[in-house]
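Private note to self, pasted from the team thread so I don't lose it. Backbone tokens:
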């Protein structure tokens, strides 16, 4: 059996495969039981998540349209630069992207027309941003985005612009957690890392995107491995439990500390 991973998240995919005693790779040659951010077809495909759902989540335009159609709060979307100057600034995006490298800030319609982007979202000032890890309609972990360096961007908060994640308790930001669960379900995903913002001005949470192969720290890997093992045993696909005491291992590593990703 195999865990299939995407090259951009290979480190996390390999770590999970080792924890679960599964083979890993990019080109499946046997039964695929877990997909980690890859929609590569497989002959024997009983995977969590499905190739179709991963492809949908990876296409940022289609995923936003699907979320909107499912009643999920997200960013205002434009297929062409809007005429109304009051709607600016907007952000130009590509269908597929990584780490926000595709984002182009557009203050005017002319700038948007010159941006050479597939679609646009209206800029929403978010006072807080989160990554919520969801598995089987349950929130595993939740992280708040925090600046890691001085001078971190206050408009586009990505890892390459000086931001990281710091764990937050699951008894806070319940609205964000509920929205994350709804978003993964709407996209047909069993698991995912959901990026969410909260706007004080509009008093609402919005989904930015859902990651199907998020990078994980050592502790988060154990949380996912525990849930994968439980889920695979329930599916009865021939997976054998590794007999690991996941919860005890998590407690041993963390020692009650507030870890970061």
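Design output:
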């Amino acid at each position: 059996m195999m865990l299939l991973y995407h090259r951009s998240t290979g480190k996390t995919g390999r770590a999970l495969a080792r924890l679960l005693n599964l083979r890993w790779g990019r080109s499946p040659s046997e039964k695929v039981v877990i997909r980690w951010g890859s929609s590569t077809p497989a002959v024997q495909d009983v995977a969590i998540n499905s190739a179709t759902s991963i492809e949908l989540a990876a296409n940022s335009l289609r995923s936003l349209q699907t979320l909107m159609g499912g009643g999920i709060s997200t960013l205002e979307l434009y297929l062409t630069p809007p005429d109304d100057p009051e709607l600016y600034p907007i952000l130009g995006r590509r269908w597929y992207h990584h780490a926000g490298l595709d984002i182009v800030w557009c203050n005017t319609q002319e700038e948007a027309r010159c941006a050479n982007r597939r679609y646009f979202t209206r800029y929403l000032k978010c006072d807080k941003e989160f990554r919520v890890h969801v598995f089987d309609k349950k929130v595993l972990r939740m992280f708040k985005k925090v600046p890691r360096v001085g001078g971190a961007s206050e408009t586009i908060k990505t890892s390459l612009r000086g931001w990281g994640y710091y764990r937050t308790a699951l008894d806070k930001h319940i609205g964000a957690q509920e929205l994350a669960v709804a978003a993964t379900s709407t996209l047909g995903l069993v698991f995912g890392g959901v990026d969410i913002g909260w706007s004080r001005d509009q008093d609402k949470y919005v989904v930015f995107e859902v990651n199907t192969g998020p990078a994980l720290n050592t502790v988060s890997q154990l949380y996912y491995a525990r849930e994968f093992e439980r889920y695979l045993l329930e599916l009865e696909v021939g997976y054998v439990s590794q007999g690991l005491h996941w919860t005890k291992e998590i407690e041993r590593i963390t020692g009650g500390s507030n870890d970061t990703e």
